[in-house]
Amino acid sequence: MDVITPKRIRITLKTIRAITFISLLLLVFFSTIILSVVMYAKWQGPPSLTVPQSTIIYASDGSKIGELHNGQKRYWVQLDDISENVLQATIAIEDRSFYDHNGFDFKRIAGAALADLKAMAKVQGASTITQQYARNLFLKHEKTWQRKAMEAFYTIRLEQNYSKDEILEGYLNTIYYGHGVYGIEAAAKYYFGKNSSELSLGEAAMLAGIPKGPSLYSPYVNQEKAKVRQAIILKTMEKEGYITEKQLASALSESLVYTTKEDKVQKGIAPYFQDAVMSTLADELNIDAQMIETKGLRIYTTLDLTMQEIAEDLVKKSIDKKSDIQAGFIAIDPATGYVKALIGGRDYEKSPFNRATQAKRQPGSTIKPLLYYAAINNGFTPSTEMLSEPTTFSYDDGKASYKPSNYNDYYANDFITLLQAIALSDNIYAVKTHMMLGMEKLVKTGELFGLNTKIKNIPSTALGTSPVRLVEIVNAYGMLENGGRKIEPTFITKVEDATGEVIYKSDTKKEQILNEQAAFVTTHMMTGMFDTALNDYTSVTGHSIADSLTRDYAGKSGTTSTDSWMIGFSPQLVAGVWTGYDKGKTIDLVQERGYAKAIWAKFMEKALDKESVKAFRPPDGTVGVYINPASGKLATEDCPVRRLTYFIEGTEPTEYCTEHLKTDDDKVHEHKKKEKDNWYDLFKWWD
């Protein structure tokens, strides 16, 4: 048993005195710091209550194409002119101790910290109304300790220099309510078509719930979530004694009547493109809605106004006004991924749904270039032959089968080359290639090309039955053109804040992803769809527009019962067109099946009209030889068709075609026949 001696008692007392002394020193130290901060905040005087600034969107040439929130929907009203229901609902849900604290609710902070610690994640907020007001007025929204410290200082300044009613009034007049609307007066007019003084209890509770997450709790975005949050607020008001049980029941059953939803962003120029810019800011750059709408950003985009105008004009003029068919269009610079023009539908006012970036549709045969790139990269060549005839394919260990067909049931019933297969869009050849490579190969190739919508591991995906987005597959074609460097659809080149400081700049470095030689061989084969010399058992798929093209293009069309596609590129530009019906209606009219190709061909010609004509340049490691497309062998002078075709070096054919070689007797006979024909030509007027 320990014996407590006088010496040990003295040591213990010294320790207690030391701890007490140090604690007092720390208390004095921190009290001095806090007092100094408070006095400095008071000495600084009332902070300037800055007005949110408009965010401007610019095209690639520097001209303004859009402005977010131009000040027309911001109203400042006195606290006495705001419904008591709004004041109570806001305080109840945002800061119940608002009138009792000095800017910080330490009890709430401790509770939130404990909740976060238990969940090991950020699950509960503790910001007071004053803190939120300070953050919205003066600060950027990055999550740093410096920003937190500045937020605390501005909170103290507000509390030291303004009354609680003034702070609440300022908060309610500047908080974001979604859809470009700031302040309770603007929100009341926007959602309910009335003044904030006229808001009912149910309406006030609905609006009070929106600032927590306008993209989640706006009744225009998600009515169900909005109603759930409204109920939480009303029950909290009842619990805090602001309303009675009878008022609670009445407000919960109140039928809210909303005004017609309006778009608060100026969208006269390229509205679908501007929507894509907004999505990029929020989803990829993590710039929140409030910063976008209020902090005076300068957003510099990739939009080419001339190309956009050409595209919009062609879509408008090419499609029958009486038709309900929809369209999606996108043009990209294959060197950078910069989106030059974009159309998400025929009428933004009727349907803001973006069919270029949001819709997932079956791409049909436009998926084949990705398949054939994989084939070239795994031992195939443009001369590789396979039999084109009706075929049933077994898969899944023989448990399932798949029987594709060619367009109009046309088959060669003979061997055809890969060069022919892509130009004629032979489905049997495509599925055979898919099965020979292993179906997982196309899945991985899609990922390599940046398709975010994963390709299904089944035989029919060789024919494009696995849905993709137009923007994704057009970007993939851009990677073929640029020799295999990774690009991503890019809408924004730079973002500056109100002071001119660059807060984002697009990356111009492009990583090599694909095999450069295989990408070029695939690209050059894709020029075949416009080469009518490759007509065989059926016509090349681009025969209807081939005569209208004046420069080298590579491309691929695609057709399903509900979708029509045309994607292609020159060395300077890649563009894709989709046409179809939104709700699964089939495309039955021949005219409607031709829209995509016609729009694409006219756009490419007009968009590049003032650009120099460029050819696809073969990279080192490829060899170009003349072959007979039908046999894949080196062509002779006697072959009816001789086409320059590129191969990965070392895989080019070495055997000459002998099918069309003529003997000396054949040549003499042919010469005499020609002379006879020429003689008869003199007397054609007899006929």
Keywords summarizing the entry:
687 residues; alpha+beta; five-stranded mixed β-sheet; 24 helices
Structural features, described:
The chain has 687 residues and is of the alpha+beta class. Among the domains are: 70-253, Biosynthetic peptidoglycan transglycosylase-like (Penicillin binding protein transpeptidase fold, Orthogonal Bundle); 622-687, no CATH class. The protein is built from 24 helices and 18 strands. The strands form six sheets. It has a five-stranded mixed β-sheet with strand order 2-1-3-12-13. α2 crosses α10. The longest helix has 39 residues, at 6-44. The chain starts with 5 loop residues before the first helix and ends in a 6-residue tail after the last helix. Residues 119-124, 261-266 and 667-687 have low confidence and may be disordered. It is found in: Cell membrane. Residues 62-237 form the Glycosyl transferase family domain.
Write the layout of secondary structure elements.
Layout: H1 6-44, E1 55-58, E2 64-68, H2 84-94, H3 106-119, H4 129-138, H5 145-161, H6 164-174, H7 184-192, H8 201-208, H9 214-217, H10 223-239, H11 245-253, H12 271-283, H13 289-294, E3 298-301, H14 305-318, E4 326-332, E5 339-343, E6 360-361, H15 368-376, E7 385-388, E8 393-395, E9 400-402, E10 414-417, H16 418-424, H17 427-437, H18 439-448, E11 468-469, H19 470-481, E12 492-496, E13 502-505, H20 516-526, H21 543-546, E14 554-559, E15 563-569, E16 574-580, H22 590-593, H23 595-607, E17 622-627, E18 643-648, H24 664-681
Parallel strand pairs: 1-3
Antiparallel strand pairs: 1-2, 3-12, 4-5, 4-16, 6-11, 7-10, 8-9, 12-13, 14-15, 15-16, 17-18
Helix pairs in contact: 1-5, 2-8, 2-10, 4-5, 4-6, 8-10, 10-11, 14-23, 15-17, 15-20, 17-18
